[in-house]
Amino acid sequence: MSDVETRLLDEILAIRAIDCHSHVPPQSPHAQTLADLLGYHYYTELAHSAGMPAEAVDPQRSDGDRIAELVSRLDTISNTVQYSWLMEAARELFAFRAERLTPSNWPELAQSVAEAGRPRDRYLAVLAKSNLEKVFLTNRFDEDLSAVDRTVFVPCLRTDDLVFQLADAEVRHRLAAKTGTQVGSTGDLQSAVAWLMRYFVQAGAGSAAISLPPDFSPAGPDEKAAEKALAKALRGKALSENESQALAVFAFDAVANACRQFKKPFQLMIGVVRNVYPAGVANGRDLLSKRGSLVDYADLFRRYPDVDFTVSVLSMTWAHELATFAWIFPNVKPSGHWWYTNIPAHIEYDLRARLEALPKVKLIGYYSDMYKVEFGLPKFNMYRRVLARVLAREFVETHRLSERQAVEVATLLLRDNPKRIFGV
Amino acid sequence: MSDVETRLLDEILAIRAIDCHSHVPPQSPHAQTLADLLGYHYYTELAHSAGMPAEAVDPQRSDGDRIAELVSRLDTISNTVQYSWLMEAARELFAFRAERLTPSNWPELAQSVAEAGRPRDRYLAVLAKSNLEKVFLTNRFDEDLSAVDRTVFVPCLRTDDLVFQLADAEVRHRLAAKTGTQVGSTGDLQSAVAWLMRYFVQAGAGSAAISLPPDFSPAGPDEKAAEKALAKALRGKALSENESQALAVFAFDAVANACRQFKKPFQLMIGVVRNVYPAGVANGRDLLSKRGSLVDYADLFRRYPDVDFTVSVLSMTWAHELATFAWIFPNVKPSGHWWYTNIPAHIEYDLRARLEALPKVKLIGYYSDMYKVEFGLPKFNMYRRVLARVLAREFVETHRLSERQAVEVATLLLRDNPKRIFGV
Amino acid sequence: MSDVETRLLDEILAIRAIDCHSHVPPQSPHAQTLADLLGYHYYTELAHSAGMPAEAVDPQRSDGDRIAELVSRLDTISNTVQYSWLMEAARELFAFRAERLTPSNWPELAQSVAEAGRPRDRYLAVLAKSNLEKVFLTNRFDEDLSAVDRTVFVPCLRTDDLVFQLADAEVRHRLAAKTGTQVGSTGDLQSAVAWLMRYFVQAGAGSAAISLPPDFSPAGPDEKAAEKALAKALRGKALSENESQALAVFAFDAVANACRQFKKPFQLMIGVVRNVYPAGVANGRDLLSKRGSLVDYADLFRRYPDVDFTVSVLSMTWAHELATFAWIFPNVKPSGHWWYTNIPAHIEYDLRARLEALPKVKLIGYYSDMYKVEFGLPKFNMYRRVLARVLAREFVETHRLSERQAVEVATLLLRDNPKRIFGV
Fold first, then answer.
1. Residues 6 or more apart in contact with residue A399 via CB below 8 angstroms
2. Where do you find CATH 1.10.2020.10 in chain A?
3. CB proximity B316 to C under 8 Å
4. With pLDDT > 90 as the criterion, what percentage of chain A qualifies?
5. What residue ranges of chain C are covered by domains with CATH 3.20.20.140?
6. What is the arithmetic mean of pLDDT over C387-413?
7. Within 10 Å of residue A188's Cβ, how many Cβ atoms?
């Protein structure tokens, strides 16, 4: 590592970051057992991919059994960056000293995790050590937000169910229970969505969020078609693909509209195909497709010039489109490096392209997408290292930025931009 | 930068290059005011993308107002390579010494530009300093070519209107006024196109050129269908999508045929979607889509083995296809790095791939796509630096080429190949 | 090159590799004339792409004429990695000392090749020098396997004809002659395929293999539709596209089933479009398309959990999908870097991504795809160099792996994984 890169990395590690997307559960944000760490889907799915039967990590089995099973498989994935997250978390947060986690030394780490996790506010220490100021959650629309520790966590209204599961009576029932509105018409739906958005914003929410399949097109919501589809669903009939689509596009539009009304960004996470591999482990069954195009979102971006769309894509084939749409549309903000694109090879290429071509004030550098706060440190550190490398090699050493300017850019990406865009 | 790279860059900066694609206006090729530089769409569109209202750069406003507005926004894009073009041009061509262009120092640069731009032949000095021997223009089919200074500029017949706007009576009127042919049949169309091509070639033109949407397919021109569509257009009726397509494919084929007849290359610039963001600034409304495939052009490449197709693509997802088609088809020549792909991250990856796999005699290294000659220097220098880096790191340091051979390769890309292929 | 990279490369060059895909002819595995080397399609197609008429390498012409013609064109491709394979083979296997192959020095190399090629077992020395323990062949289903020297070669059942050419009476005739089964029904087809698989496995075969067009979808084989299509073909009628597809999907499924029955992997090579440029040189007429998606294979991967699918893709746009499918599906193994992706720029990017995100035990590093054993050395060495670079820069220097661990990973990719997966 060059001296410039080393100095930049030091500065970048010192930036107090905002993590604008995670799945941390507000009532148990930190790990209490080693199983909470090893149960992260990256470890279960990669161990399964490398040969472990999915049943080996069945939740029915005891923590100890599952841990022993996973640890015995870890060598097969010791090359991966996901494995390095685990070891960095173990080292930095639990003072674990061994280089590898093995069948013989895991009980030691398990004990450290159990001890460290005992204090109710352990997550505060973890986040402080990780240099994370705020962490966004992803909340179900009827989730109890009173449990959220708002000193560090920011609620976020997850709208997947509202957009794609309205034909499910159970979802409508939950919606009625929460909002008091029995959705009987498209107007009701708009009201309920607005009600939820107001409720979330009052609870400090930073945004709405949704994950979308690669073939979704939010263009041209058609209230009449949605009304018909909704009526059919209310009669308990199964919807055709067209009807489902009409209802989803309308509901999606209602969310965008609520974002406009309450001046909050809409986090679009585009490209996931759910349940491609149903025999996989929990949370390890979804994949992606390279089909589709951001062109299908142009109509949305045009109709809502006042709404910031912070956009992540799951397929690297979409990365260039995302950068170009953010280049032209004021309300499109590229956000982080999501899931299957969240490895250094892809981050480095894509980050360099974004930094070279897009206004620095529009870039949301990174989010953790984590399920337990312990992964914020190693995931953000991975990103901080790539960021230091790209800034050093492509900007400072080529005299396009001074070191001070490079640190300013890094501060925008990690902290100032998400603070300003999400209003936290 | 390694010593090898430094030495290569010195040699590469000394190569007198050919710029085979620009939008320089022959009657005012160089900047006369700072607004001519800051008005480049990269600055207006990026400033708008970063928050500036599009109206702020309305042509109705005075130069001074627009400049002040843009300069006040420049900090938001100071990380971009586009910003670095501006500063390099200011430094190298206008002896501007400040590191950043600011609200307090821009009048100084404005004065330098105004003074430097006064001599009518200022562009010659700019091009000499930029080490550019020839710069291609992109001329409307009825443009007056007598104003073109053929010591440095090379006309090029832009055929977008001919191919995609024939249903527009105004275009047919312009065509008749220029060629003397009132297009009443497909035969007339072929004649008019051939007439134009002859006219342009006699005026020193290097090629025909066209920009194409990502879903265009030039396969299988159908004269009968085109005849019917043309007849309908002549009756003033709006064409269906199929009819428009039939007419466009036929007209496109007429251009390819004229290229064959007059032994000139056809510059294909594939992938632009026009007016995706109509509320944007001028020239900042077009985008791209990753859909489509070069396979749709195979029929064209087969039918015209004697025509050189110099091909640029706008989406990075097309880059690998372009390289492979150039690998197999003798008449496909990859050309430069167009618009949204014209940043170092993409150039470096794509250039390395082309240099590793394609005959060096087929590669057209770069063109500026500029609107004022001042941008030739920083844009070509950006490319020269990437070229030096790729040749040093991947060819000389790995012993695949000697330094002398690497410079020969660079000379082919920047100068000898475009000279030979376009016959200038 | 850093010291770490140099040390790693030394170790990696010492790994005795398995080459799991080639087109080496068992009866003449090594070159006997220089024409055998220069006749490799990379040289003929690139020379043609650079301007040589295809007729110049017509098999009718004498070896000497073809060699002289090709050598006179080599300078046009001296920058390419393909050219570097030729020169490395010449240097390492034939003690050729000149830096370039020229019209004046080629007779010297021709003589060396002729002399060296004389011993019948010359290929053994070449493979030993190349550090290749085993080389897979790609055999026609009715090929005589008795000629195969099983000390170094491993047969592999190529199934392209069985899947895509069953409507051809000649193919069915060859099938009947080999298996004794006159295919009159889908059941017969399954039997014949199983018979072949058993026969190949008994002859030491490591797998079945097939190359697939980018729009092929193996989902949902429909025996009834296949039966109808087969019956129509048996009546000598031409099949519609749908019928051809139905028959192909069913036959493909029969092969997958036979792989399950005989516990052998199925090598899928996805993405080739055949005969895009019919006027090209032999083996230089095929290209690719970026259309299609691995999602279309999910159904297959789900239905055959016990079959290892070793997957290669021809378009770089598919690379990310392949990595993610291998991340989730236990039976999907990314394999090598095929044909148009087989250049350092693409290998480096893709290899880094695979190594960062996928279990090391699933990666098949490389195969040569060669037609003469002489190309194993330079092609594998190209890969070994990229592997050393990626491991040094992204794993050892970033402290994710120790040097020893990095060499272990390399040994898995080059040797242990293919040995285990293919059972050789």
1. none
2. 32-116
3. no
4. 99
5. 1-29+120-136+335-424, 150-333
6. 98
7. 17
